[in-house]
């Protein structure tokens, strides 16, 4: 087997990855990835001294942009195994750090999309909104408990 075949097999996605059961829909996952790529492009264009963040975004979200770097697929696979809240904390922290070092307009705008990528992952970590039936059931149970407390207080005053 040639080294090119080994690299192709390493680059092929696993059919049953841990990110498939995180509750994200396919379009939301692509939205997060596209936001990461756009954030990497903006960081490359706007923040010339801080291109490390752009490199990390490209490495984690779009490893095909770093196809000549041998460890790109391994880093991307490890980033895909992270939970959504871990990615959110990583991307938001990665975007806030350069802004704290040097608060300029280009640094702020360059890191805004990277921060937005972290926010998107954070929102996916919160999960889906519940359906109306479950909210109505919870509301009815709370109402029932309030009525029981009220009748208990009135009975205690009457005695």
Describe what this molecule looks like in 3D.
InterPro entries: TVP18/Ca-channel_flower (IPR019365). It is a multi-pass membrane protein. Pfam families: Cg6151-P. This protein folds into two domains: 3-128, no CATH class; 131-159. Helix content is 74%, strand content 0%. It has helices at residues 3-11, 26-46, 51-61, 72-80, 84-101, 105-126, 132-158. It is elongated.
Oligomer, anyone?
A: single chain
General shape: elongated
- Portion of residues in beta strands equals under 5%
Q: What is the domain tally?
A: 2
- Note the run of SSEs as H and E: HHHHHHH
Tally the beta strands: 0
Unreliable segments (pLDDT under 50, ≥5 consecutive)? 7-20
* Whole-number mean pLDDT: 77
Main sheet summary: none
Radius of gyration, in Å, reads 24 Å
Relative helix content: over 70%
- Distance N to C terminus: 89 Å
The total of helices stands at: 7
Instruction: Find the structural class using helix and strand composition.
Output: mainly alpha
Membrane topology: Multi-pass membrane protein
Protein name: Calcium channel flower
InterPro entries: TVP18/Ca-channel_flower (IPR019365)
GO cellular component, one term: endomembrane system
Summarize the model shown.
The chain has about 160 residues and is mainly α. It contains seven helices and no strands.
Note the main attributes of this structure:
elongated, 74% helix, 159 residues
Topology (elements, then pairings):
Blueprint (H helix, E strand, L loop, with lengths): L2 H9 L14 H21 L4 H11 L10 H9 L3 H18 L3 H22 L5 H27 L1
Helix pairs in contact: 2-3, 2-6, 5-6
